[in-house]
Amino acid sequence: MAALPILLLSIALLFGGAVLAHLIGAASVLSFFAADRARFLAAAPQRIIAHIDLFSIMSMPLFILAGEIMNRSGVTKALIDLAMALMARLKGGLGHVNILTSVFFAGISGSAMADAASVSNTLVPAMRKAGYTSSYAGAITAASSVIGPIIPPSIIMIFYGALMNTSVAAMFIAGILPGLVMAGALFAANAWIAHRHNHPTGERMPPREILRRFVYALPATVIPVIILSGIVFGIMTPTEAAGVAVCCAIIAGLIYRQMTIRKLIESLERTAILSGSIFILLSAVAIFGYLAGLEQIPARLAEQLIGLGFEGWKYLLLLNVVFLVAGMFLEVPVALALLVPLLVPTGIEMGADPVHLGIVIIVNLTLGIVTPPFGAALLVVSAVSGTPYWSIARKAAPFLLVQLGVLLLLTFVPEISLFLPRLTGFVN
């Protein structure tokens, strides 16, 4: 009963605008007293340090910095121009360009929201000019932004790896096939809609122009290749790959002649803000996880769910529902911090692979940002493009249905996620 006032106070403070990291930390400390475990608080600082003092988590601020630099240094335009050269001549070509651009961006920023904002500012006006409706242009932009956190490098994967002490390299490699499957499903959906609604076909570019754009985009496209090949072949750890990514981002900016000291300072400032907020959240979660371990909450939760019949595929479905709904209302790092320490150990106790669960959870949470009524990516696209929110949401519905189908496929066919990690020796 002592936990009930703490829970009610936490909910009230959450809706009152309290900082979530402070809220989780304070509620966890109070719960130690409520559970008569206050004597264990003396070890809390040590647990926090152990939780965040990981070599793999050092890659997170470096990947954030690489993405920030590349977003400011001309890489975005080079990738969009290349996608236009490859896809624009097809039926509904600019829709394909939108999706392919998201695949390219995924290998750079790993952020769905950054993808949605950047593409909304560039491709949505181009699609309008070509004859697409604003709502369809916004819908495919929001839907394709989901690819960002799935294809490595992904900040969310690093965050999950830190929470569950799971190999970040294994998570990166596991995300390649699911991300490509998601992109393929979106390509197919856009092609079907394009033929049904007679979307325009773009101009065919001469081979010389395609080659010119490909060569121009090489500094941008080679960065993800260096990162992934270095990790897959054991040349670099994820942290070393992140450092290389920062150097490559700076070099690419110099090649495109858009890298300035001011832009570098802005990138560093933004990285410090984002990294600081994530580390504070991880520290608060460490205290919560410490208490959950002392109270054996995951084991008790597993027993309760098994008693209710939620095991095996039923538990995976329950996870999908919980994380999809959480992604609709909470920021992805927040949802991970709140739910992963509670629900993922239960799944692992039931026999699920932590890497497979991580991919399923990340796809769930990213789908939440394109799911009404509070889909964050839909809101971003609406705000940037000036298109009404609900008109975008309606046009995004077919894409969301296709993506939910991909989610179920990834959930019940673990080999899609685990094939490459097993092939490269990162998963047994």
UniProtKB/TrEMBL annotation:
<comment type="subunit">
    <text>The complex comprises the extracytoplasmic solute receptor protein and the two transmembrane proteins.</text>
</comment>
<comment type="function">
    <text>Part of the tripartite ATP-independent periplasmic (TRAP) transport system.</text>
</comment>
<feature type="transmembrane region" description="Helical">
    <location>
        <begin position="103"/>
        <end position="124"/>
    </location>
</feature>
<feature type="transmembrane region" description="Helical">
    <location>
        <begin position="356"/>
        <end position="384"/>
    </location>
</feature>
<feature type="transmembrane region" description="Helical">
    <location>
        <begin position="48"/>
        <end position="66"/>
    </location>
</feature>
<feature type="transmembrane region" description="Helical">
    <location>
        <begin position="396"/>
        <end position="420"/>
    </location>
</feature>
<feature type="domain" description="TRAP C4-dicarboxylate transport system permease DctM subunit">
    <location>
        <begin position="9"/>
        <end position="416"/>
    </location>
</feature>
<protein>
    <recommendedName>
        <fullName>TRAP transporter large permease protein</fullName>
    </recommendedName>
</protein>
<keyword id="KW-1133">Transmembrane helix</keyword>
<feature type="transmembrane region" description="Helical">
    <location>
        <begin position="136"/>
        <end position="163"/>
    </location>
</feature>
<keyword id="KW-0997">Cell inner membrane</keyword>
<keyword id="KW-0472">Membrane</keyword>
<feature type="transmembrane region" description="Helical">
    <location>
        <begin position="271"/>
        <end position="293"/>
    </location>
</feature>
<keyword id="KW-0813">Transport</keyword>
<feature type="transmembrane region" description="Helical">
    <location>
        <begin position="241"/>
        <end position="259"/>
    </location>
</feature>
<feature type="transmembrane region" description="Helical">
    <location>
        <begin position="214"/>
        <end position="235"/>
    </location>
</feature>
<dbReference type="InterPro" id="IPR004681">
    <property type="entry name" value="TRAP_DctM"/>
</dbReference>
<keyword id="KW-1003">Cell membrane</keyword>
<dbReference type="Pfam" id="PF06808">
    <property type="entry name" value="DctM"/>
</dbReference>
<comment type="similarity">
    <text>Belongs to the TRAP transporter large permease family.</text>
</comment>
<dbReference type="GO" id="GO:0022857">
    <property type="term" value="F:transmembrane transporter activity"/>
</dbReference>
<feature type="transmembrane region" description="Helical">
    <location>
        <begin position="313"/>
        <end position="344"/>
    </location>
</feature>
<dbReference type="GO" id="GO:0005886">
    <property type="term" value="C:plasma membrane"/>
</dbReference>
<dbReference type="InterPro" id="IPR010656">
    <property type="entry name" value="DctM"/>
</dbReference>
<feature type="transmembrane region" description="Helical">
    <location>
        <begin position="169"/>
        <end position="193"/>
    </location>
</feature>
<keyword id="KW-0812">Transmembrane</keyword>
